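May I ask for a single protein's sequence together with how it folds?
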Amino acid sequence: MTYHISTLYGGSGGFDEAVAEVTGALADNGFSILTTLDVAATLRDRLDADLPPYLILGACNPGFTLRSLHEEPRIGLMVPCNVVVREIPAGQADAGRIEISAVDPVAAMMAIDNVGLIHVAQEIRGQLSRVVERLGLDPAEAA
């Protein structure tokens, strides 16, 4: 089982436009952004590392969060749902392209023995999959 749902960005804009589209698509599916971590900037400032743009968006759907809390009171250790928007670095396949990845909540919840929580995670996976698919390449472009 993979731990992420990923696609190459299919829009015509750059990194900032991709982030805006991801944020909009998440909002359209009931998610708000609780945190934005600029990994590239943090590592540049603290370690003088030169990385391409890499953001982690902490996305939260309040309805799913409430249901998850009812199923598992310590679920806060596993939320929010992280969504990564990153420019693929030079030297890797698809270098310079923008990749969008969301955590697979079902994979993340496998560490918790709670069937009710898995059902909620499956619903969240469906929502996040729709977000990622909406922003991805047209299958004809990917070929």
